[in-house]
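Work Package 3 (structural annotation) set out to generate three-dimensional models for the target panel prioritized at the project kickoff. During this period the team completed the workflow that converts sequence records into discrete structure tokens, so that structures can be stored uniformly alongside our sequence database. As a representative example, we reproduce one entry of 189 residues exactly as it appears in the project archive.
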Amino acid sequence: MAQSVDPVSLVVAKVIKAIDLKVQQLQNETIWLQQAQQVAEHALSKARLEEIRSWGQKQEVLYAGYFKELSAVRPVVKALPQVKQILDLQKQVEREYNRSPRGASFTVQYDLVLQRSKDFLQLLQGLVTEGGFKMKDAERVIEILSLREQMSGCLDKMRALNMQSDRSAAGQAQLQTDLKTLKLLNGKL
């Protein structure tokens, strides 16, 4: 028996195949669009990451600048107590100078020590002003510490001169007393 082919069945089969082919084409297009979407999302993510990396680098440069400025200011701020100490030492040198007896045999030495302390103040002014010596802050701090020691030396020298002057005055007073006593004894003999 020969099977007869129904023309409607053939047409239906061809329509089903055509619809199946169209569905496969649509599925392929959907897959292609999904892949294109993934590529676009990947590119967008990459661009965002690059943007974030760039922002991070800008922040790093910005904060590096801040830290550099802070590290530059730190030694200057650290030096402020030493500057105050130097100024206090200068006041003490001047007090000791004003305490010195006028007309004393040490007048030249007193004047030299006072002048030296004033010279140190001028050097200090040069170190702490913007137009002063062009040096690194660490070097500036070292110079300020050195000036503090030298100013302290001036104060020690001024005090030593005053002590020496006091001893000399005390010795002179004792000599005068001894001379008076000797004259009295001579007059009675």
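The chain has one domain: 9-188.
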